[in-house]
Amino acid sequence: QRARRQRNRLAAWPDTIRDLLAHLESSMPLHAALVELGRSGPEPLRPTWRRYGVLASALDHRAALEAIRNELADPVSDRVIEVVLVAHEQGSAVVLDLLRDLADSTTDDIRLLETVETAQLETRIEARAVAVLPFVVLVMLTSRSPDYRAFYSSALGVVVIIVGAVMTLLGSIAVQRLGRVREETRVLVGPTTGQS
Q1: Cystine design at 157: which of 47, 94, 152, 177 (Cβ 3.0–4.6 Å)?
Q2: Taking a C-beta distance cutoff of 8 angstroms, is the pair 97, 77 a contact?
Q3: What is the DSSP letter of 59?
Q4: How confident is the model at residue 51 (pLDDT cuts 50, 70, 90)?
């Protein structure tokens, strides 16, 4: 569930950034634009921006943004919130082009991730088929040939099956580990987060 929520939030960032841009271009103040995201922004990130509104009313804007950055704790959120922090300090007009570029690059990153995961899914399916195939052949051989059935019913045959199953399991684990997409490292972390 956590991975699904993270995935939905990642997919929602480009639309969230574009909504923020639209609010800023309509001369809405940055704080009001962020609070508005909690009401009308993309659904996966609405709770985050509602929380920002509550925190900003009790703390200052920077502390509220740092709190939600710590809560989200992913590289994309770090980049977006860093730009928003700059906008708070320098004025929103300074960062409009930066937000546009960020929306485009985030969209490209999501597309690339989907392409990589699709390619990996095909590889994982092929690896599972290769792992199962020897056992399918073994069942066919033992069902048709009494000699094969007699051998694999013996103690030595059982040992061969167990060794084959262990090797298959180890191979499957190796394929999964080698094929895992490495998570992007967080670079832009706030002073309260420390190192990730």
Answers
A1: 152
A2: no
A3: S
A4: very high
